[in-house]
Amino acid sequence: MSKIKIRNFGPIKEGYQKNDGWIEVKKVTLFIGNQGSGKSTVAKLISTFTWIEKALVRKDFDGKWLGQKNRLKNKYLTYHRLENYLIKDEAGNEITEIEYVGDAYQISYKNCFLHIDKIPESRYFLPQIMYVPAERNFIAYVKSPKELRLSSESLKEYVTEFDKAKNAMKGPMSLPINDVFIDYDKLNDVVNIRGDGYKVFLTEASSGFQSLVPLYLVSWFLSNSVKRGSEVTKEPMSSEEEERFRKLFRDILANSSYTDEQRRLALSELPSRFNKSAFINIVEEAEQNLYPGSQWKMLGSLLAFNNTNPGNKLIITSHSPYLVNYLSIAIQGKELLDKVNTKNKFDLFKDKINNILPINSFVDASDVIVYQLDEKKGNLIRLDNPNGIPSDKNLLNMMLREGNQLFDSLLEIEEEL
Amino acid sequence: MNFFDAACQEPPIKNTRFGICDDQDGTRAYTDVTDETKWVATVINPIQIDLVFTAIDACVIKSDEAPGRGRCDGMLTSSEHLYFVELKDQRSGWTPGAIDQLESTIQFFIQHHDISTFRHKKAFACNKRHPAFQEIDNELNKRFFKDYKVRLDVQAEIIVV
Questions:
Q1: CA spacing 20 to 30 A to B115: which of A101, A147, A269, B94?
Q2: Chain centroid to CA A27: how far?
Q3: Residue A294 belongs to a domain
């Protein structure tokens, strides 16, 4: 399990006040809170530091290089456009502090410098990290990452993976919503949505499809490729493999005949030749443009992809009470499934349970953590989990409750008339 | 305290649709099949199970009995069903009180009877006139089920299956 500690970075001020400030990243981690409260900031920092750790493991650079002043700001925060989130005090001294502990490295940032410590005797699974940005709807309209030259790096990478996912499709794929299929017309590089008696281009489809199709396809593709990789060998890379990997990596970096774009593509292609054994799927506003029932099905799919490998992680930011609710149901499902298995009655109840919620989306209570962010205080609190499920007293459900209270307040005034 | 005291029970009823009423005057709750305007809870009984309504408040638990402890209005039972019912008609903030009364009644019931003999156990908090918009109540439902093996339902319709 990895963890991160954040103080004075963008909207995050005092950070998490418990657990010595450590925000734990579990198999399923959800961040909820008002816009501007820092949900995406935390998710992006997790993405950034997980990526730095991966780069350290594969020896893209050494700790000395990374330890030079402003490396984080100039080299890594720009990927998610976070370079202006570093905070200074009145005297002009930077007061941002970030610490990250992964499975292979501990990385801390203070006074403009990164400091790296290797964690001895660690067991590390080389991850495929995907950050799914909120602005993903745009990619339904573009055919290649080049067209997004002005947009963010994370979006470019997402488009690259979307391209790979489309090409990996072996035929029509069913979407978890609306009983429709995705067709990819390779010749014209066009994605179609096909339903009962109709077919439309993805560019013409509703915004919900434009949000879901890339998310679904990329998550499917990456979780499957990681699964295939890890089925070949369940072990992390051997030292020999590591050395080979590093050499290939250095060769690409040193090859002056590459354009920047070619180099980036070659580098992103390289890990697929090694045994990635974990897929870290970081999804911003997972519910984007989706009807509540579709939000459930979308999350069910993401949880199922997340369950394909023990090292996989799903990190989500959300404003949707339906997603928290789905997690509760998926946790309850797992608890029931364990009881059913203990009594050797899986075959008897399998279909009945599957009709309620797909069993492959179930998640253990101990693998779920929900944080609520407060934009006024700039802090996070961990949502309670009474009896293992996320508390209904979360900000999103409380907002529904507030709807009851406001309505009631109007009735109360009417009573006084 | 006898939750199966014949003096508090109505004869079995198997209508597909009937109401549970409470005149809110200190008298006990009762069922009705004719005047829907009086129904606080509507019972939907599509497979016509024989249901016995037992008045709990002001009968099983007398008005002067167990002071300070809440009790719900009644229960519907069959050989398999044990449905506790609390009826409310106040305008606002009625849910927590109703749930407390149901919980307290279930505790009394468990003290005096074996709850496990019933296959379907539910507790209904009903308010026909002022239903609340629904919130998500998994946490409360889970605690109720864990503590009493009773499933909680906050709405004005009691569907018997």
A1: B94
A2: 11
A3: yes
A185 DSSP β-pair partners = A190
pLDDT class of A151 with cuts at 50, 70, 90: low
Averaged pLDDT score across all residues of chain A: 89
Residue A381 lies in a domain: yes
The model's pLDDT over A73-127, given as tens digits with 9 standing for 90+, comes to 998 998 888 999 999 999 999 999 999 999 999 999 999 999 999 998 777 888 9
Say if CB A238 and CB A317 are below 8 A apart: no
**Domain total for chain A?**
1
Instruction: Give the Cα separation of B39 and B32 in Å (integer).
Output: 7
B146 touches chain A (CB under 8 A): yes
- Interface check for B143 against chain A (CB to CB < 8 A): the answer is yes
User: Residue by residue, what is the 3-state secondary structure of chain B?
Assistant: CCCCCHHHECCCECCCEEEEECCCCCCCCEEECCCHHHCCEEEECCCCCCEEEEECECCCECCCCCCCCCCCCEEEECCCEEEEEEECCCCCCCHHHHHHHHHHHHHHHHHHCCHHHCCEEEEEEECCCCCCCCCCCHHHHHHHHHHHCCEEEECCEEECC
Instruction: Indicate whether A192 belongs to any domain.
Output: no
Taking an 8 Å cut-off on Cβ atoms, the answer to whether A386 and B139 are in contact is: yes
Does ipTM top 0.85?
Answer: no
Reported pTM: 0.86
